[in-house]
Amino acid sequence: MIPEIGSLALAFGLGLALVQFIIPLVGILTHRWRLALIARPAAIGQFFFVALSFICLAYSFYSNDFSIAYVASHSNRSLPVAYRLGATWGGHEGSLLLWVFLLSSWTLAVALLSRSLPALTRVRVLAVLGAVSVGFLIFIIFTSNPFARLLPVYPIDGSDLNPLLQDPGMVFHPPLLYMGYVGFSVAFAFAIAALLEGRIDTLWARWVRPWTQAAWMFLTLGIAAGSWWAYYELGWGGWWFWDPVENASFMPWLIGTALLHSLAATEKRGVFKAWTTLLAIAAFSFSLLGTFLVRSGVLTSVHSFASDPVRGTYILVFLGVVVGASLILFAIRGSKVAVTSWYNLLSRELLFLINNLILVVVTVMILLGTLQPIIAELLGMGKVSVGPPYFNMVFNILMTPLVFLIGLGPIVNWRQYSFDDLIKRTRVSALVSLMAAGSMVVIESQKALTDLLQIFIGIFLIVWVVLLNITDWWKRGSKKSSNSLVGMTKVSPSFLGMYFAHIGLAIVVIGVVLSSHLSVEKNVRLGIGQSQSVSGYDFKFDKITNVTGPNYDALRGHFIVSKDGEQVAELHAEKRQYRASRQWMTEAGIDANLMRDLYVALGEQIENSNDWAVRIYVKPFITCLWLGGILMGIGGLLAMSDKRYRSRVKKKFGVEENQVIGVA
Amino acid sequence: MNNKTFVFLIPFLFFVAMAILLWTGLGKDPTKLDSQLIGKAIPVFSRSTLQDESVTITNDDIKGPALINVFASWCPSCYNEHPYLMTLSKSKEIKIYGLNYKDERSKGLKFINDLGNPYYQIIFDNSGRLGIDMGVYGAPETFLINDKNEIIYRHVGIVNQQVWEEILKPKIYPGELIHGGR
User: Fold this and answer.
1) Which of A32, A84, A201, A553 has its CA at 20 to 30 Å from residue A65's CA atom?
2) Residues B54, B113: Cα–Cα separation, whole Å
């Protein structure tokens, strides 16, 4: 019964999405305003039915309804309840349902929170969101129904969720990531609405900014969560692999970051208008591309779902219609909204322009690298992939100047800034950064030259960004209050958000540079009771015990870590065998603090002995990667909490609102 | 069409190029072997082994039936796949050769020292040239070769018990497939 309700709810959802998409546009074209206003109730209704359908699927997982094919292949009676919830989006069908559920949630948020918008703009935005929803709902209902039954014969027990996904990370990472992906649909819808209206102004940018910041915040947190998960779950200490699907989530993030900045310029100075709409279209297009790459089977990846050419074809056609139509609209209308504006060679506008150019070039390079296997095959070179060295090189070279500019961004004024002032403001920070970088190189002078160069550049950039942002924050704070520290808390949330995001990024760079150059990794053979010393820490293999988990059996290695004779941590590293799938998983034992991670993973038991191959890592400052990510996320949250986004703008636009209501 | 309109058309043209590219990729399942390689002998090669730079291994050293498993330390799924290869190798059901693909020697060695060595011999292909000749698309990938050293199947993605029992083994030991009715 429950699955049938779920299917039916999806069908109703599709019906209402069609209403939300088509009727308002008809209403606008025929000037029947009452028709147009149906967008909002339709959006609310669509959310209700899609949410109901999602709850039905989650409940089917909770109640172990293995008559549903999707549940039977992704769950198991002994799977803990939290992972059954995670399993809801553990495969193609369910993750698509999550996608469209989050889309309808964003749509609901727009419907409820956009009272200050001119009614026509709101209607157009909702209609565009409805169109996207229609595409995804058709896709789910006709090619990927999660409620399809295995009748009349269905299994007594399910075949279990992939053990790799049985982790708290599976509960948080996909929803956060999808919230980010899908969130860009709002900026996209605003961009299309603006192009349709043929007008973009400061107010438009002010409406779009908090939505973009929200989506960016979720995407940032989602990517950080995914990288943390890979770090502790895969059992060998890596945290980024340039896997096609990681790239697919990173490209919208890069474009989204560019969009945040160009929106700021559009709001404050009315520049980059056409460019901003293009970025808004691009950010969402890359989100759709990610969805395509994971499901079409054109690229292989650890994240790929079972590929199916029909699904791939559908998404590509959908992508073609949505993105193609948007870009044609952009080609026709973009030139009308474009403006020529004046700004000096040295100005914040220029810095933002460089920021945008770098981010877009990095994105295109990553896109080409990701699609390179297809390109190579087309050129008859066989299917070859470029691998991480290409991405690392391209990324490091292009991002270095960008991070350097993060130090200057807050200082340089809009319109123009004097070069002498810039030197005055930055020379102390430059000197301190050079000294910090120099002393780090002296400390690590035994390393290879290329390592030293990277350490030098890395440390310089970190200190540079942190110092310049904090001094600027301090300066702005001292204008607010006689006590600068008090004043720093009174700076407007927009600026606070910016400082958090910039300093967060610098902290991520700390994690990247220090953990990749200063980590010590030892692979040793250890017997029970034996010890191994790694960079000042003594790892003692205390004992090995049998552990019975809810749906796995494990061997747990107990390690006692001490420094200078004092115990600092006890680590549990496990090798688990999951009962249903008979697969083995490694669970690393990690003790983390700000300064270092102690990391132990069990390898294989060495044949004919009681000894084990053990991997021991000491990774300095790696926690900074995720701490920085969280700070950036908080930055996004602070920025969107700025009051000016919520101030009513009715006065200025009251005319239009009245006009619509009046006619209706 | 004036210049300004053309500039605004560039994103669309870029997108069309990308869409065509993706379309060509769509029909071709990367998990399928390029057809021209099926039934052909493994390519002629001469490489050093992973463990010892001075020891050379050539195509004549490969003796099928065997699996040639493409792995690399930079490939996350390989870490996932490895425990089963250890099991398979211990079961002595089939010989497994390793192809350490586009890797650094020290990292490849660390991978083996860490996780154990299921391989009969390991070909060190850091340039990826041999990989290209064999049509390797990424890692992990596993080639099934028969007793005449001909490639008869290419499996993309990890090999686990299910893949071995249901896909690879029936292809190389068809006689053992008693319940083969489908």
Assistant:
1) A553
2) 19
